[in-house]
Amino acid sequence: DLQPLPPPEKSKEDILLFFKLYNPEKEVLCFVGRLFVKALGKPSDILRKLTEMAGFTPDEEIELYEEIKFEPNVMCEHIDKKLTFRASQLEDGDIVCFQKSPKADSGTQVRYPDIPSFLEYVHNRQVVHFRSLEKPKDDEFCLELSKLHTYDDVVERVARQLGLDDPAKIRLTSHNCYSQQPKPQPIRYQGVEHLLDMLVHYNQTSDILYYEVLDIPLPELQFLKTLKVAFHHATKEEVVIHSIRLPKNSTIADVIIDLKTKVDLSSPTAELRVLEVFYHKIYKIFPLHEKIENINDQYWTLRAEEVCKTNDVPEEEKNPS
């Protein structure tokens, strides 16, 4: 019959320590055993036992670290093998991680050469689901990133995934955790410091980001204003939506000049005006000198049409309010 084994005898001078072994080539940290050590003993006294636990040769040099805590931040400190366990403030139940001493001439490239760097990686690891802004319900791809990655790090990884040469042509938008939709405004170029800042929405953290591939680099685009203008021809029923992209300090007059190069007018001398429409009702006729920077075409429809040649303008259009 199976009988439980009694715990080993423990004196007041004994400390129970748990040991983990780190393999930097495989990026694996795993539990390998436990030992009672004397409080006044030194790590150098147990090196042979640790090499046996790990399957190393007896003369393998190893480095030891105390895994103090993982949350909210990683705390992992190197253990001096020449100090006593008590002097290193090791107590019952503490976790000691160890690994082969890194060799500068080994020729093996590893991402996380020591235990502290590996624990930081695990702590900040974040898998992000990327969706095209045009298809906000469908995941396009996933990337394993770090919460500490900078804005440039993130767009560079996305560009590499998409096979894009210029990461500056990537524009990202954060996820609204409450509406489960993209936020109305995209992330400005280098407008956040780290990936974590892109994912936090109030007190919640998302794992979704939306991306767009722009035709010009985002730093240039941010100095421009893009308006969608619905052009109503004087004699045709078809309404065509035109995208007008101009410097932010441009005026409605500049919009009209640009629009005239894109549309067929009823006559070469025809004049245009731009109106603000909401639910088929005219709310504003823009003066030519108005700046376009603060015009919002997300909630309002911008309508361009030819000005009547007579002065017979309907009274409600003269005074839309």
From TrEMBL:
<dbReference type="Pfam" id="PF12436">
    <property type="entry name" value="USP7_ICP0_bdg"/>
</dbReference>
<keyword id="KW-0833">Ubl conjugation pathway</keyword>
<dbReference type="GO" id="GO:0006508">
    <property type="term" value="P:proteolysis"/>
</dbReference>
<comment type="similarity">
    <text>Belongs to the peptidase C19 family.</text>
</comment>
<protein>
    <recommendedName>
        <fullName>ubiquitinyl hydrolase 1</fullName>
        <ecNumber>3.4.19.12</ecNumber>
    </recommendedName>
</protein>
<dbReference type="InterPro" id="IPR024729">
    <property type="entry name" value="USP7_ICP0-binding_dom"/>
</dbReference>
<dbReference type="InterPro" id="IPR029346">
    <property type="entry name" value="USP_C"/>
</dbReference>
<feature type="domain" description="Ubiquitin carboxyl-terminal hydrolase 7 ICP0-binding">
    <location>
        <begin position="7"/>
        <end position="199"/>
    </location>
</feature>
<keyword id="KW-0788">Thiol protease</keyword>
<keyword id="KW-0378">Hydrolase</keyword>
<dbReference type="GO" id="GO:0005634">
    <property type="term" value="C:nucleus"/>
</dbReference>
<keyword id="KW-0645">Protease</keyword>
<feature type="domain" description="Ubiquitin carboxyl-terminal hydrolase C-terminal">
    <location>
        <begin position="209"/>
        <end position="310"/>
    </location>
</feature>
<dbReference type="GO" id="GO:0004843">
    <property type="term" value="F:cysteine-type deubiquitinase activity"/>
</dbReference>
<dbReference type="Pfam" id="PF14533">
    <property type="entry name" value="USP7_C2"/>
</dbReference>
